[in-house]
Specification:
Layout: E1 7-13, E2 18-25, H1 30-41, E3 49-53, H2 62-72, H3 92-99, E4 106-110, H4 120-133, H5 141-159
Parallel strand pairs: 3-4
Antiparallel strand pairs: 1-2
Helix pairs in contact: 1-2
């Protein structure tokens, strides 16, 4: 019996090899992702952040640009108007450029298209799928949420390690 689905959003600390923040929700929209990033940044509000993401549209949304502008002390009035297609908010390209700005203390790096495997959290999601959800049986969404949380705790305590790529880049 299928009891429904959940959306797990997680952040990976490359050096520690651990999930440092996660949310489990019913939806995955622009506001959800912006709220996730805001909660994650509270863990080190004065830190320099480099956040690696793929090209999912929520990763370059208006809500995220407005959040980063606010946290960087940038006047939102300078962002332009999405409806009139002007300024930073005018296109996905201009939003990505703003989020990727190297002068910001919070900077996003977008993986090349069709290569989300470069994003280490995607590798960890594969581990989660193989070790927990692939053959798992869950009695409810609550049960699934709890098992995911327990897996994250277990992984961070006993299995966490930085990933080491061994690909030499040569074509097979």
């Amino acid at each position: 019996t299928r009891h429904g689905a959940v959306c797990l959003t997680a952040a990976w600390h490359v050096v520690l090899g651990q999930v440092i923040h996660h949310t489990i929700q019913q939806t995955r929209n622009n506001e959800d992702f912006a709220n996730f990033v805001e909660q994650m940044l509270r863990g080190d509000p004065d830190g320099k952040w480099v956040i690696v993401v793929d090209h999912l549209n929520t990763h370059s949304s208006e809500a995220l640009v407005r959040l980063i502008a606010r946290l960087e002390g940038i006047d939102e009035a300078t962002l332009g108007n999405k409806k009139k297609r002007k300024g930073i908010l005018g296109s996905m390209k201009s939003r990505k450029e703003f989020l990727s700005d190297r002068t910001h203390g919070i900077r996003f790096v977008f993986t090349p298209k069709h290569s989300s495997w470069l994003n280490q959290i995607e590798i960890w999601f594969g581990v989660l799928r193989r070790k927990l959800t692939r053959y798992g049986s869950f009695t409810s969404l609550t049960n699934l949420n709890e098992r995911i949380r327990r897996f994250i705790d277990y992984y961070n305590t006993y299995l966490a390690h930085p990933y080491r790529w061994t690909c030499d880049g040569k074509l097979l």
